[in-house]
């Protein structure tokens, strides 16, 4: 068991919830951000009913000022942040020749700029304490691209570029920086896709099924212990064999 503090952005979503649960079960003091208080409080109550006490801090990670305030709120509630999971993400799909500037900017701001906005207020403390774990939740579509997702694929690919640069800068400070790239996971967002489309996706997955959010949470947890201190700058694909790159 550990008493380290972990911040999971986008923690109230499907994958985020699984990550929060797993870390809380392992003894981490866990926090996540929110934008809608009513929804977040209901989610927090649900987590508590399952024995997981997750702290909440208001903040839109797509803006630096709110992200920084959210980080300071978490630190005040729980203490210095040892583990950061950059998980927040949205989609605004559309073919590029029809994509609006708002569709592009919203995805880049939430999925990629948020990684700077949240990590920047956290990194100096990790460097001072000479220990830290940072994990980006990217996507299979950041590796292989996807029709109608130029914005999303660009943001998710950019997350791993961030990972490998930050990993080099901070390796001597006991900080590891890694990426997990999930494939298609059985979250509410994916299950909302029409069944015939979903079946076509599953047919492309060698394991013959969608992933489970808990499987992504496990992949994240692999990077966090002291024993993982020599693994940095890595991208762990968790996609059922749908995309097998080096």
Overview of the molecule:
The mean pLDDT is about 95. This protein has a single domain (about 5-185, about 215-235), classed as Rossmann fold (3-Layer(aba) Sandwich), CATH 3.40.50.720. By secondary structure, it is α/β, with parallel strands linked by helices. About 50% of the residues lie in helices and about 15% in strands. The protein is globular. The two termini are about 35 Å apart. It is built from nine helices and seven strands; from the N terminus they run E-H-E-H-E-H-E-H-E-H-H-E-H-H-H-E. The protein has a seven-stranded parallel β-sheet with strand order 3-2-1-4-5-6-7, sandwiched between helices. Helix 1 packs across helix 9. It has helices spanning about 15-25, 35-50, 65-80, 100-130, 140-145, 150-170, 190, 195-205, 215-220; strands spanning about 5-10, 30-35, 55-60, 85, 130-135, 175-180, 235-240.
Instruction: Please identify which CATH superfamily we are dealing with.
Output: NAD(P)-binding Rossmann-like Domain
Roughly how many Å apart are the termini? 33 Å
What is the CATH class name?
Answer: Alpha Beta
What structural category characterises the helix and strand content? alpha/beta
The major beta sheet can be summarized as: 7 strands, parallel
- Average predicted local confidence, pLDDT: 96
Tell me roughly what share of residues is in helical segments: 40-55%
C-alpha geometry: globular
Question: What is the total domain count?
Answer: 1
Strand order of the largest sheet: 3-2-1-4-5-6-7
Would you give the CATH topology?
Rossmann fold
Which ranges are low-confidence, i.e. pLDDT below 50, for 5 or more consecutive residues? Answer: none
Radius of gyration: 17 Å
- Seen as an oligomer or otherwise, the chain set is single chain
Strand content: 5-15%
What is the number of strand segments? 7
Assign the CATH architecture.
3-Layer(aba) Sandwich
Order of helical and strand elements: EHEHEHEHEHHEHHHE
Count of alpha/pi helices: 9
